[in-house]
Amino acid sequence: xxxxxxxxxxxxxxxxxxxxxxxxxxxxxxxxxxxxxxxxxxxxxxxxxxxxxxxxxxxxxxxxxxxxxxxxxxxxxxxxxxxxxxxxxxxxxxxxxxxxxxxxxxxxxxxxxxxxxxxxxxxxxxxxxxxxxxxxxxxxxxxxxxxxxxxxxxxxxxxxxxxxxxxxxxxxxxxxxxxxxxxxxxxxxxxxxxxxxxxxxxxxx
Length: 205
What we know:
Layout: H1 2-14, H2 19-59, H3 62-70, H4 72-100, H5 105-148, H6 156-200
Helix pairs in contact: 1-2, 2-4, 2-5, 2-6, 4-5, 5-6
C-alpha cells in the first residue's frame, strides 16, 4: 500500500480544491489493486484444480479404480467435488468480470466482501471434503482389511474402537493440513482485499 500512502500525502498537501480528484485517483488505484487480487485468486484456483487433479490422474492405478467401483458413495463424492470446485472457479471468474466494470466505491466494497466470502466458503468446502473423504476412505479401508483378516472375536470391539479413533484423529489432522495449505495459498489475497476494503470506506464516490 505504499503507492496509496504517497497519494494520500500529496492529497493533503494539495488542499481542498483537489479533494474530489484525489478521491477519484485513490478509487482508481484501489480498483486496480482489487481487480489484480481477484484475478490472481482466479488464476491460482484454476492452477490448483489442474495440478492437483493432474497429479491424481498420473498416479492413479487400477486398484483405486476398483476401490471406487465397490464404493459408489466415495465415487459420487469425488465427482461432486469436481463440480463444486468448478462452480467456485466460475464464481471467481464472474466476480472478476463484475469488478472490472465497477464505477463506484460502494459497489466495489460490496464485491470485495463478496469475493472474500466466496474464498472463505471455498476454503471451508475443501477442508470439509478433505476430512470426510479421508475418514470414509480410512473406514472403508479398515473394514476391508478387517473382513479379509482373521481376528480374535474377543478383541473385536476394542480393535474397532481403537482404529475408528485413529481414523477420526487422522481425518482431523488432514483437515488441519488442508486449512494450513489454503491459509498460506489464499491468506495474502484475503488480507489485501481487507486492506482495500478499509481504504475504500474512507472515500465517498
